[in-house]
Amino acid sequence: MDFWNAVGELSGWPLVFLFIALLVAFAFEFINGFHDTANAVTTVIYTHTLSATPAVLYSGAMNFLGALVTVLAGGAAVAFSIVNLLPVDLLIKANSNAALVMVLALLFAGVMWNLGTWYLGLPVSSSHTLIGSILGVGVANSLWKGEGFNGVNWAKAGEVGAGLLLSPLCGFVAAAVLLLLMRRTLKEPKLYEPPHDGDRPPRWVRVVLICTCGGVSFAHGSNDGQKGMGLLLLVLIGFMPVHYALNVNEPEKAPALLNAVNEVRAAYAKHNVPLPDALDRNLRYVAGHLDGLGSLDELRKREEQDKDGRPQNVRWEVRQALFQTNHEIKRAVAGAGVPAEFRTELEQVRKMRIAPAIEFVPVWVVVGTALALGIGTCVGYKRIVVTVAEKIGKTHLTYGQGAAAESVAAATILAASFIKLPVSTTQVLSSGIAGTMAANGSGVQGSTCRKILLAWALTLPACMLLAGLLFVFGRLLVG
Length: 479
Description:
The protein is 74% helix and 1% strand. By secondary structure, it is mostly helical. The longest helix is centred in the middle third of the chain and has 37 residues, at 203-239. The chain is globular and about 70 Å long.
């Protein structure tokens, strides 16, 4: 209902472009489904554990559950790692044309690169694609305005980049080590030989492979599903900041949020910790605007004017004050020389009541993203499957290699979701398979691996350049 109320306030081209942006964002996640999740079904198909149709349907269902359950049960930290790459206040400060072009440019760049690499059968990272597109429009926008390279949250970009760089290395080494351990403990020779035509693995091996396929698919949904949600949040914030600045799922919690803000001030006073001036200003601003409100929606009735007489978006300003408060509390909790009880009290208030007010995903976005990812898994998987199964190693996958690579991939991706980092399912699983090929002594196909590594290396800069060029073209077109 909130979405349709927000849509009702748009008219003309902004309304048309909003629906185009939403369509392209869901298309990106749909493509992500058959582009990335092909990695998860490769092992069960090529070891004759499952035939293709039940394998992709099973993987699609697990992707759907991974995206849905993880966010509804545990929050959307990975989604906001994506959102916070591009300082979202840029979308508000920019004029409406610039915000529109920024969002559409990053969406089209991501879709174009993903489709192109899928057509070539290259298992590149949709995570790199999305992140490169976001960085590209951020840099292009700041250069357009003569502000240098300030259009990107470089600290967050470095954090995300470290996760994307280290995860495939972990996948390669861990999968190789696991396969070697399996060879020492599980002496069944059939596990380490490519299956012959018509062969099927032993029942217990089939169970293991089906479980690891499901685990990778669930983990992919939990991590990549959140990236799609972050993408959709950028669309909603860019087009309708008034409605999506603060939690639309629980607007009735305005009184609880006011109490939380007051509790932060009380905690500083109770433990005799000096209250920073910036935090004091933000606490006063939020408290002054929430006082007497029963719902966050009522903030729209308290619109103010700036010094030039222009209306200010109070919901957005409250959101920014809460964002800075959240950041200051994180710094205080991580600092040295403060009482442990003070840390505990502040962190509880921050995690339970302040952060959820600004870090939320509308329920319809969660369900829609999960459906797009799950349905996409069932379409167009064959090109990537053939590359992963037949062209990375010099021999086809063995049962042991499939189990080792997928077990490591599922564990790595779930761990990344737990520590709030976006990682690439494609890179983790492909590098895991390469690791098992090396450990098994079967070797890797140098030409294919060079193409994959080149595609991995080019994805981030290519998407940055493509998104930046689309942004410039869009600005020249709309003014």
